[in-house]
Amino acid sequence: MPLKPSEISIVIADDHPMLLKGLYDELTKHNYNVVSQALQGMQALEAVLSERPDVALLDIDMPLLTGFDVVKMAKEKGVLTKFIVLSFHKESEYVAQAKSLQIEGYLLKEDSFFEIERCIQTVLSGKTCFSKSFDTKAIIDAEDELGKLKLLTPSETLILKKIANQNSTNAIAEQLSVSSRTIEKHRSNIIEKLGLKQVNTKLSNWAMTNKVIILAL
């Protein structure tokens, strides 16, 4: 049986004060229990850790910590909160990051409040909820990206994580006590397995774009 809005504790976070106020007003008008608000990621994380709400509605693009950072760090602390991220981003790499962090819900800021309510009830029932506005292809592409990453060996995964953290080939070789040639060989294998065209896409750029996914492996 669905919980009544007044029984659901919620933390909300968005670095745009007007958007945050609008979300707060809609939630409270519909009797939801908003226990804390935040204008940046660090405040959001502190609120989630202290309040342990049933649901956290988080903007992705926030200063200090992104919504994805907040989710990752909160989950590492064992928080059982259900997370719904809100964004203008429809690109598959964002969907992939959400899926890699096992985020329960992903809504677009263009979605109606009805969709937010539907998503809250869906995630509280133990299911995932992605905006109906998402192109099915974006979700399939995101799942494909995650599938490719699972093809990497433990050594390749370790190296890719170091690349995502902006370590150079020489620095990685020194850290792992191997030759730079060995790291270059691993890089070539990673590029091939991920289906990246070396002439068009630098692995370091791809790794930075998909850093959250990679570091969650």
Kindly describe this structure:
- By secondary structure, the protein is of the alpha/beta class.
- Helices cover about 55% and strands about 15% of the residues.
- It is built from eleven helices and six strands.
- A six-stranded parallel beta sheet has the order 2-1-3-4-5-6, sandwiched between helices.
- The radius of gyration is 19 Å and the shape is elongated.
- The mean pLDDT is about 90.
- One of its GO terms (molecular function) is DNA binding.
- One of its GO terms (biological process) is phosphorelay signal transduction system.
Order of strands in the sheet with the most strands?
A: 2-1-3-4-5-6
Q: How many domains in all?
A: 2
Largest sheet: 6 strands, parallel
Q: Structural class, judged by helices and strands? A: alpha/beta
In the CATH hierarchy, what is the architecture of the largest domain at level 2?
A: 3-Layer(aba) Sandwich
Compute the CA-based radius of gyration: 19 Å
Mean pLDDT: 89
At the fold tier of CATH, the topology name of the largest domain is: Rossmann fold
Number of strands: 6
**Which CATH first-tier class of the largest domain would you pick?**
Alpha Beta
Count of separate DSSP helical elements: 11
> Order of SSEs, N→C?
EHEHEHEHEHEHHHHHH
Residue share in β-strands: 5-15%
Q: Helical proportion?
A: 40-55%
Shape: elongated
What's the name of the CATH homologous superfamily of the largest domain? Response regulator
Q: Which spans have pLDDT < 50 for at least 5 consecutive residues?
A: none
CA-to-CA gap between the ends?
35 Å
Keywords: DNA-binding, Phosphoprotein
Protein name: DNA-binding response regulator
Domain Response regulatory: 9-124
InterPro entries: CheY-like_superfamily (IPR011006), EvgA-like (IPR051015), NreC/VraR/RcsB-like_REC (IPR058245), Sig_transdc_resp-reg_C-effctor (IPR016032), Sig_transdc_resp-reg_receiver (IPR001789), Tscrpt_reg_LuxR_C (IPR000792)
